[in-house]
Amino acid sequence: MPRKVHVFANGVSVYDDHLIPAQRQRYEKRNVHEAEEEDIFTELVRQLPANGCYLNIGCAIGYYPLLAKRLAPALAIHAVEPLAQHRAFFAENIRLNGLDPTTFTIHEQAVGATDGKARFLEQDYGSMLLQGAPPHPIPVTGLFRKLLATLGVEAGQADPSVGRVVEITTMDTLVGAIGRTVNLLQMDVQGLEAEVLRGGAQTLRTGRVETFLIGTHGRDVHLACAEELVWYGYAIECGEAEAKDQPDGILVASKHRGARSKPASGFAPECHYLAASSE
User: Fold this and answer.
1) Beta partners for 16?
2) What is the DSSP letter of 10?
């Protein structure tokens, strides 16, 4: 029996068994992955040079790289996904969409504040680096048990060693390996977005990433990312700590793209910079 395929309104197709119930429910309202981020992403990609470079950190099953390829076929596309299951799903979806796998460069490392190794919690779309967890086995007790509880993981379901050891690279190391300016970097790493930026001081200082589109997780993370980017001379074009129709916040910042301190034309009116203040 043929596998069921979900076709989004933008033409991107994915296998339905790659999706989770919360996503299917969201798509019934508007048949795109993230209603507010989709419009911003589409505009940003259309403004890139035809042969520009797009980097997606935390690509999961490949939705945004696939959409980028549809919008701008000549883009150099780099995608980061440490979860093996999602890399396999991404490969399936590349073939499903009739695209050439060699036109995508997929990086298997996680991205964090330092180069090295760390434990990675494999939890489907909630997969993430366990910040501060050493790569050697650790007991599921005390504060670590509380951390797992916040992620919806029952300690009794886990081994004494939680997660899989993965290689971590910094944004500086990753962009250096890509070897060219990244025109658009999109990131969704389950709350560790500020940590990724802290591992990219050289990249930020030199503007090797021109524009960031970040899915932020919570107001504190959102503001930490905005402050880090502004410190290095990026202008915030869009800042929405809590988006209306998607689970993540949205932050857009640019350095060399005629950056503005207010929303770019075509962005939703409510997409504005939520500056840290004493309010």
Assistant:
1) none
2) T
Q: Where are the beta strands (DSSP E) in the chain?
A: 5-7, 13-15, 53-57, 76-80, 104-107, 110-111, 116-121, 128-129, 164-169, 182-187, 209-216, 235-240, 249-254
- Tens digit of pLDDT for each residue in 226-240? 999 999 999 999 988
Q: Strand 53-57 vs strand 235-240: parallel, antiparallel, or unpaired?
A: unpaired
Nearest C-alpha neighbor of 279 from the set 219, 225, 217, 221: 219
Q: In the chain, what percentage of residues exceed pLDDT 90? A: 59
Instruction: Give residue limits of the domains in the chain.
Output: 21-112+170-254, 116-169
Tens digits of per-residue pLDDT, 172-190? 999 999 999 999 999 998 7
Phi, psi of 71 (to 5 degrees): -75, -35
Please enumerate in sequence order all residues whose Cβ is within 8 A of that of 196, keeping only pairs 6 or more positions apart, or say none: 57, 111, 112, 113, 171, 187, 189
Instruction: Please give the class, per CATH, of domain 21-112+170-254.
Output: alpha beta
User: What Å distances lie between residue 65 and 30, 95, 129, 136, 247, CA to CA?
Assistant: 20, 13, 22, 33, 20
Q: Rounded distance, CA 44 to CA 67, Å? A: 12
Q: What are phi and psi of 111, to 5 degrees?
A: -115, 130
From CA 169, how far away is CA 196, in angstroms rounded?
Answer: 9
Closest CA to 32 of 243, 241, 223: 243
For 80, phi then psi, to 5°, come to -110, 125
CA dist list (Å): 5 to 52, 96, 142, 166, 231: 30, 9, 43, 31, 44
Tens-digit pLDDT profile for residues 200-230? 999 999 999 999 999 998 889 999 999 999 9
Q: In terms of DSSP bridges, do strands 110-111 and 53-57 run parallel, antiparallel, or are they unpaired?
A: unpaired
